[in-house]
Amino acid sequence: MNLIGVAFFVLLACLNGHAAENDGSFFKDDLSKESLRLAIQRSLDFLGKLPPDRIVADQPKSFTAKEIKESLVSFLELLDLWDRPDILSEAVRSRFDFFPPFDQPNEVLFTGYYQPMIDGSLTQSEVFRFPVYGKPRDLVQGELVTLAPERRVEKIVLRLDQDRFVPYFSRYEIDRLGALKGKGYEIAWVKDPVDLFFLHIQGSGVLKLQDGRLIPLSYAASNGRSYKSIGRVLIDSGKISERELSMQRLRRYLMEHPEERDSLLAENESYVFFRFVQGPLGNLEVPLTIGRSMATDPQFFPKGALAFVTAHLPVLDSSGMLVGWQPFSRFVLSQDAGSAIRGAKRADIYFGSGEHAGAAAGYMKSVGRLFLLIKKRADP
Questions:
Q1: CA 245/CA 239 separation, integer angstroms
Q2: Please, what sign has the CA dihedral across residues 356, 303, 48, 224?
Q3: How far apart are CA 291 and CA 351, in angstroms?
Q4: To bridge 361 with a disulfide, which of 112, 265, 275, 315 should be the other Cys (CB 3.0-4.6 Å)?
């Protein structure tokens, strides 16, 4: 399928999604009941640690941890209807409110992310010379709260420079000027700066040591700088077209133009610091579930909440090349966040780890629909 055909197919995905709302079995799910139960339980583990009245989202309205928890428990009671989609759909509609309502347009751009597996070392050498940094001790995190015209909480990241707080170091200052070099913040080293850059973009990964050991890395903090897509930089400069943009195409450009690599990477001032963990964790500090966990903007999506999504997934051949698209619909959980995922019109689906997951996530770009499910309140 050519790129024009792909774009037309993705447009059809959106149109078909609207038509599906009239289907009595709208809430069909293409994954297993067991994976959904596991993902819901992981959200419950997170919510169970919060005070019941803790606000976990301000939009589309204010939700408490108790409301989200009760919604998940209520949904678990419906899993006995899993093999009867028509009845399940009817039960879901009668028990839950949807945000936004079905009759409101809510097109969402779905992309994908994964855990890259990269060659690395716990010691520096001539081969492994690009550092993976842990959270620096001089990094200070805080919140800036605005009450008018509406309440808004913005996370800020600073460092103390003599007697005043200043923005934390940018990617250029860290990688090119060596602002953190030799301060003891290095936790590992890798051989390829492009692999390291994409590790930052994904927010977690797996370090493959020379002795065969696999060590998961997870997000620890960021420098608080705004994320900037280097793909967008290349598109705006006319070096690649928007319709061909994918993670694979971006990697190829960086390989083919090594003289531009460092300056191009520095365009994205956002920088991520890592820590060693036992497995893939989202920002809720619970394990991610392949295909069920998604990264969203916590300003617009309640942490741990259940949602239903419809869109299209890329179909790859045995060599990892895109050959088409297939429709999918499923229940997912808001269990992660990302610096590139901002606003109510974006969501990032977790594809897992390894080469195949990376290929699929790299191509994933589909307009679809997303509905939050919140248990209806009893009439007073």
A1: 11
A2: positive
A3: 6
A4: 112
Of the CA atoms within 13 Å of residue 95, those in its CB half-sphere come to 16
Cα–Cα distance between 109 and 37 in angstroms, integer?
Answer: 26
In this structure, how many other beta carbons lie within 10 angstroms of the beta carbon of residue 305?
A: 25
Residue 59: the pLDDT is 74
Tokens 């009595």 belong to residue: 24
Please report the DSSP string for 363-376 in residue order.
H-EEEEEEEEEEEP
Give the side-chain half-sphere CA count within 13 A for 331: 28
The residue-averaged pLDDT of 48-75 equals: 92
- pLDDT cut 70: percent of the chain above it: 91
What is the rounded CA–CA span in Å between residue 259 and residue 173? Answer: 19
CA distance 154 to 152: 7
Q: Which two tokens stand for residue 190?
A: 């890798």
pTM here is 0.81
- CB of 181 within 8 A of CB of 271? no
Give just the sign of the alpha carbon dihedral 376, 13, 315, 114: negative
Pair 374, 65: CB distance under 8 Å? no
Burial of 63 (0-12, 13-18, 19+ CB in 10 A): buried
User: Which residue, among 349, 212, 254, 244, has the nearest Cα to 293 in the 3D structure?
Assistant: 349
Element (H, E) at 272: strand 272-276
Per-residue confidence band for 22, with pLDDT thresholds at 50, 70 and 90: very low
Closest to 367 in 3D by CA, of 100, 15, 29? 15
